[in-house]
Amino acid sequence: MRSTEFRELATMMRNQGKSYSAIALNLNISKQSARNLCTYKIKVNKNKRGPKQNITGFRVYGIGREICKLKLLGEKVTTTKIINNCKLEISKTTCWRTLHRIGYKCRKAAPQVMLTKKHKEARLTAISQWLSERHDWHQTVFSDEKRFSLDGPDNWCTYVKGKEKNIRQIRQCEGGGLLVWAMVMPNGLISHKIIRKKFNSSDYLSLLKEQAIPIMKLNFGNNYCFQQDNAAVHTAKIIQRFYADNGINTLKWPAKSPDINITEDVWRMISALVYDGPQYQDFKSLEKSINDAILLINSCRRQAICDLYEHIIPKLIVILRKNGNLCNK
Q1: pLDDT tens string 44-58
Q2: What is the rounded CA–CA span in Å between residue 234 and residue 238?
Q3: Which comes out higher in pLDDT, residue 111 or 325?
Q4: pLDDT of amino acid 31
Q5: Which CATH superfamily is domain 117-161+174-321 in?
Q6: pTM above 0.70, yes or no
Q7: DSSP secondary structure string for all residues of 24-92
Q8: If DSSP codes are grouped into helix, strand and coil, which group holds residue 195?
Q9: So where are the chain's domains?
Q10: CA 279 from chain center: how many Å?
Q11: How would you class 166 by CB atoms within 10 Å of its CB: exposed for 0-12, middle for 13-18, buried for 19 or more?
Q12: Cross-strand bridge partners of residue 140
């Protein structure tokens, strides 16, 4: 074992630009010993950590009571709040490990339509009427609007390897998107229109006159039922007057019922195709992608839409059994 002074001398000579052979010759040692002296690093022996701290007994019950209090207040449950409110002298990691041990996991809140008692009663009344009157869903045309953004959905994800980064651009001031109106028919076809400006009841009336009504009459004659939700542009007086004057049969739709509308499933099909690639830099490319996606579904995937019509009645029965709650809840 060489002394510290001997090692410092070898290091100094190396810093002066001398080779390992010259250092070995000056110190009367081998070349390998000179190299070892210059590259030697002092090993720092870390103190071994003891066993992990375990929270047991009354402190676990205290954590459970604190979580119940936070939930009743509608607050977010965090390890920091639990440590401070329960006056625990533990680290966040110990608190997190204790929560996992007693069955708690941190989960992202899932967005969901909130239904009041009035909403549930309206849904049950409408569904009971549809089933008792044996409403013909194969003569029902569904419609809806959806906005497609340039950036794509927030939950866009893909597989990456190792530390490879998955980055999507976020526009703060110059973002935007396109509003798309779509009409889904029992024969599996989709008719759509891309709206580039603010959409009001007058625009919706023009869309009905020029596109929706002619297409429905071409496919079903006068034997059809048109579905729309309760958006302001759909329930405007000029729209209701147009339906009454032209004898158009519309389906009375309960509020907050996206789970019954099969257009929501069609939107998912379209979105999966539209957002399958890189982000869009302009509206022209986004519009082309939307048109291509709907064209592909109309040409190759019509049966998937027909299957959605077949599942409407089973879905209504499930909602009845759940006393008006959402079908997917």
Answers
A1: 666 666 677 777 788
A2: 9
A3: 325
A4: 85
A5: Ribonuclease H-like superfamily/Ribonuclease H (3.30.420.10)
A6: yes
A7: HHHHT--HHHHHHHHH------PPPP-PPP---THHHHHHHHHHHHHHHTTPPP-HHHHHHHHT----H
A8: strand
A9: 4-39, 58-101, 117-161+174-321
A10: 16
A11: exposed
A12: 225
